[in-house]
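S1.2 Input.
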Amino acid sequence: MSAHPASPPQTLDALLTQLRNDFPNLSVQFQGGVRYLLDHPRDIALQSMRKVAANAGVQPATLVRLSQSLGFEGWQALRELFVEAVRDDGRQPYARRARKVVQASDKPSGPGRMLAEMVEIQHHNLDALLANNADTLPLAADVLAAAPTVHVAGFRSCFPIAFTFHYIYGLFRSSVRLIRGDAGTLEMELRALGPRDAVLVAGFAPYSHESLRVATAAREAGCKVVALTDSTVAPIALQADVTLLFAVDSPSFFPSITSGVTMVEALVEQLLARKGKGAIRVLEQTEGQLQRTGAYLPERGG
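S1.3 Output.
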């Protein structure tokens, strides 16, 4: 590979093809970085350069030199090809993905193979949670725990993520508010944002106008913002103080929210641990009230 090609690859496919072709002639350090780029292309869009370097077993400076050897100004310019590919995948119509699912189901081994693929990809999505959030998860918990009120928002397919956080956190904290935006009331709900509050907003590509509106309003109100999203350059991530990342890969026609729900479960676990005995007392009171009001069916003996 020449030190400075005339121009860098213009698409991710062109870049990956060049890396595969040049791989045998690269230095050992470059091979380590290139191997990770080829094997984990989606992770490049989600992880920082330091995280990519650590996972690849190389120094961050190696990734910078690798990028420059390909004709890029630096790592960020190379990484943008991976980011843009993630955006394009998110913009792909669901109907186009659905056609592939239907075609695959027509094969004799279709249903069993489809389930196996789903489980395998979910394993990958969940494994990525630890790699992407080990450092930022405690920071997000600090931001939320310190706020007088926590507001949470997620729209359309991300509503289950927001609702799960609101419901579980609300079991031991009363000052948690779910922003719903029902019947065009979003602007009214955003008036409740206070300058010391925190806002957790979830969203993935294609990104909704509402999620960005919440994040922008939170910044304008002086809130701390925690973004739960699929990319460090997602619109809500660019507004955030802390970004938590989750992968939405799925062999089905629709992006998966499994790792997003897992992320908020882990986040609430951190918040519970911070509150300690106080949280336990509130949980006991909440459970008792639910039992007394008949929220659950009575347990029957065997």
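S1.4 Remarks. The domain at 12-89 is CATH 1.10.10.10 (Arc Repressor Mutant, subunit A).
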